[in-house]
Amino acid sequence: xxxxxxxxxxxxxxxxxxxxxxxxxxxxxxxxxxxxxxxxxxxxxxxxxxxxxxxxxxxxxxxxxxxxxxxxxxxxxxxxxxxxxxxxxxxxxxxxxxxxxxxxxxxxxxxxxxxxxxxxxxxxxxxxxxxxxxxxxxxxxxxxxxxxxxxxxxxxxxxxxxxxxxxxxxxxxxxxxxxxxxxxxxxxxxxxxxxxxxxxxxxxxxxxxxxxxxxxxxxxxxxxxxxxxxxxxxxxxxxxxxxxxxxxxxxxxxxxxxxxxxxxxxxxxxxxxxxxxxxxxxxxxxxxxxxxxxxxxxxxxxxxxxxxxxxxxxxxxxxxxxxxxxxxxxxxxxxxxxxxxxxxxxxxxxxxxxxxxxxxxxxxxxxxxxxxxxxxxxxxxxx
Length: 383
Ligand code: SF4
Known about the structure:
- The protein is an alpha/beta fold.
- The protein has a domain at about 325-383.
- About 45% of the residues lie in helices and about 10% in strands.
- The protein has 15 helices and ten strands.
- It has helices at about 55-75, 80-85, 95-105, 125-140, 150-155, 160-170, 180-185, 195-205, 225-240, 255-265, 270-285, 310-325, 325-340, 350-365, 370-380; strands spanning about 25, 30, 50, 110-115, 145-150, 170-180, 210-215, 245, 290-295, 305.
- The protein has an eight-stranded mixed sheet with strand order 1-4-5-6-7-8-9-10. The chain has a two-stranded antiparallel ribbon with strand order 2-3.
- Helix 4 (about 125-140) links the parallel strand 4 and strand 5.
- It is globular, with a radius of gyration of 22 Å.
- Iron/sulfur cluster (SF4) binds next to loops.
């Protein structure tokens, strides 16, 4: 690939949602324009910048080039992936990145694209629309284009521009709501309030774009746990997002919230209290048709998934059972889950898994007294 106009080649950002595992990752902006949420250390110390539209167009052309090359070799050799690998000899580092992106996207069916990094919708609508149209033109088989966005940025976009983005092909947005309790939003420095969350969510829905909202059990700490559940449920009821995704709070040492824990300004919830908070939220989701997803390793129950309202009882049953269990059984589940032995509560009925969990419990010397600090430490390994 040739470099021009300060173009330094194809780029990749650090993260994508779990649901975008087979997507092409296309970096539109670098890092996070806000970068102040106390629980988040993802882009700490990294400067935000918008990438020029023409550079992103070059990234799209680069992917098209490698997809064509790979498809040619596969056709000529009868799907010989060893011959495909030979194509990367002598490529620059950024072209290798593009080559591997093209190859894994091709293997994933080339149906979806995820726009990175934290808040693509902060860029001017005209530029984003140009990128979306070009992407759809070069790859007409794409079925879904998704982006992260902050509520604050979405709320500033007028309905006409959002509709144009939808028409140009942006058909799913993930918003990190985390909480809709103003006390919580204020404390964790989210830079948005409940009303703006609601306004932004409703705007996305009105534009006909599929909406995922993230909820973070534990983010209110002990002080605002009830508000975190109830206020968030109320906002979600007003938005009716297509997806509600659960992502339980963890507090690694690198984030500002860790200092608040050390100084006593924030009292974290234990896993049992987080489970009760999640149940409180689910119990108060009313009159909506969202699909709840628990697709993150930090969540205590992977099986808390389903469509509202019909799956509500099925979703809440394992949480109720867990909360009703004897404390020694709760302890065993927590250890099994945090060690990656259990994925859901019913795994406790599996004799083999149960034996593994009992061994882990003994090996880690976990007791009712130290389980909270032990679990917090274990969760850091998954961030
Ligand atoms: S807006 Fe998102 S990426 Fe940016 S600091 Fe907050 S949580 Fe992190």
